């Protein structure tokens, strides 16, 4: 998971969404608390001004306190709602305070002004209190009026908790919606990378020569670098094949001259020296022929595909015209329209070597069968000859091993076939069939070509 871009983005998005929702919840709770306190303060101020109606002016310019208005909210002891009015030296309290007096050590606010405070209640609880300062009377000695109206802060806390209780389900629903949107955004955003992966797979399977430039702008530089790397690789492989071919061709002429010198030595009676030179020269010629064959092998990664049926039919038609091939009963059973992931020239060379081996060792019959099998194409070439000694079966593809009783084989045919199969990422299996011998090739199947001709067994 730690190496997945998708899961990294999902995890980062989830953490960001969770943090944003947590901060939003805290911020909304704080705003709700402040709003609730402002509403409570406004209500307490209105109640304080209403309590100012308890003041009754006197004819002598003084004032006295009337009996308080009846209010069940302030009549129940310790109800959480309290008031206290002080006019000069006279103080009256709501019944809800019972025998408790709200602290008034701090100076009263100036006349006409209010102060919001937190005071201890009769049970030690925190109270939200509003103090209103007024002045009653005329003349030089007005009577100060101090009104305190308070309510339990627990009511505000309960309101805040209720708000959070209602808010959390909506935040959870919003978080789920945001996570779904984030997942969809990541999925859509990473689709170009999936397309690049599909095109790289197409390069491996031979379905595409290059990634191409028809991609989103963000991944075009990556695709361009890969395409340039592939171009450089193909150029280097082409140069390497050319150098190998040039080197092999350069050796062929001196080796042929060396064999001619060996023949002259034999004519002079130097049989042992001539045989030694011929052995060394023949072995070197096998090396040269093998490298020439390998230089012609394509990688098969970008091959358009080869049709085994028509290629086998064409090769059989050529071998039938040889004296040995004319005596063989050739049997071709190839399903039409099959295409293998291999260069057509490479498949022609591989099938040619296998068919020629089968022709040399067969008594009467050579069978070729081409069939699809689980996403692959199976090509089986069988003969009814004596087969191969079991001791030599595992080393048939080793360079220089020739089991041709006529002595004409150079021992590189099966080795070249093995190189071709490896380059095409296929498989080669050799087995005795008692009687006879079978060589089986397996290549990755490509989509059929609708314009491909049917195999002609003639």
TrEMBL record:
Its EC number is 2.7.13.3. Signal peptide: none annotated. Residues 246-447 form the Histidine kinase domain. It is found in: Membrane. Its main location: membrane. InterPro entries: HATPase_C_sf, HATPase_dom, His_kinase_dom, HisK_dim/P_sf, Sig_transdc_His_kin-like_C, TCS_sensor_his_kinase. It comes from the Bacteria. Keywords: Kinase, Membrane, Phosphoprotein, Transferase, Transmembrane, Transmembrane helix. The keyword Electron transport does not apply. GO terms for molecular function: kinase activity. It catalyses: ATP + protein L-histidine = ADP + protein N-phospho-L-histidine. The keyword Transmembrane applies. PANTHER family: SENSOR HISTIDINE KINASE TRCS, SENSOR HISTIDINE KINASE YKOH. This is histidine kinase.
């Amino acid at each position: 998971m730690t190496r997945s871009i998708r899961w990294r983005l999902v995890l980062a998005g989830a953490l960001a969404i969770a943090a944003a929702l947590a901060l939003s919840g805290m911020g909304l709770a704080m705003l709700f608390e402040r709003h609730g306190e402002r509403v409570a303060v406004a209500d307490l101020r209105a109640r304080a001004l209403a309590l100012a109606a308890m003041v009754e002016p006197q004819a002598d310019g003084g004032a006295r306190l009337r009996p308080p208005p009846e209010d069940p909210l302030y009549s129940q002891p310790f109800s959480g709602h309290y008031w206290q009015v002080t006019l000069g030296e006279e103080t009256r309290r709501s019944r809800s305070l019972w025998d408790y007096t709200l602290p008034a050590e701090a100076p009263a606010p100036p006349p006409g002004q209010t102060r919001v405070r937190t005071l201890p209640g009769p049970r030690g609880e925190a109270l939200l209190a509003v103090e209103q300062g007024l002045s009653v009377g005329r003349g030089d000695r007005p009577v100060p009026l101090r009104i305190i109206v308070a309510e339990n802060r627990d009511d505000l806390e309960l309101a805040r908790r209720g708000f959070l209780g209602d808010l959390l389900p909506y935040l959870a629903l919003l978080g789920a919606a945001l996570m779904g949107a984030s997942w969809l955004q990541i999925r859509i955003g990473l689709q170009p990378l999936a397309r690049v992966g599909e095109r790289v797979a197409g390069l491996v399977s031979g379905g595409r020569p290059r990634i191409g430039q028809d991609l989103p702008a963000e991944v075009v530089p990556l695709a361009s670098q890969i395409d340039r790397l592939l171009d450089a690789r193909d150029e280097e492989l082409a140069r390497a094949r050319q150098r190998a071919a040039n080197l092999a061709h350069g050796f062929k002429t001196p080796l042929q001259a060396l064999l001619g010198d060996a023949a002259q030595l034999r004519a002079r009676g130097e049989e042992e020296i001539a045989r030694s030179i011929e052995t060394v020269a023949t072995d070197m010629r096998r090396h040269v022929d093998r490298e020439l064959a390998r230089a012609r092998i394509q990688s098969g990664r970008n091959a358009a595909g080869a049709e085994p049926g028509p290629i086998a039919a064409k090769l059989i038609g050529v071998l039938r015209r040889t004296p040995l091939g004319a005596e063989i009963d050739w049997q071709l059973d190839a399903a039409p329209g099959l295409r293998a992931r291999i260069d057509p020239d490479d498949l022609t060379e591989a099938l040619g070597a296998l068919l020629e081996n089968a022709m040399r060792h067969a008594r009467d019959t050579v069978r070729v069968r081409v069939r699809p099998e689980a996403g692959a194409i199976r090509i089986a070439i069988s003969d009814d000859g004596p087969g191969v000694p079991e001791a030599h079966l595992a080393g048939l593809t080793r360079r220089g091993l020739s089991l041709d009783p006529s002595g004409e084989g150079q021992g590189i045919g099966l080795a070249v076939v093995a190189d071709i199969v490896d380059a095409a990422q296929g498989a080669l299996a050799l087995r005795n069939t008692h009687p006879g011998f079978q060589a089986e090739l397996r290549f990755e199947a490509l989509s059929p070509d609708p314009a491909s001709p049917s195999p002609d067994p003639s």
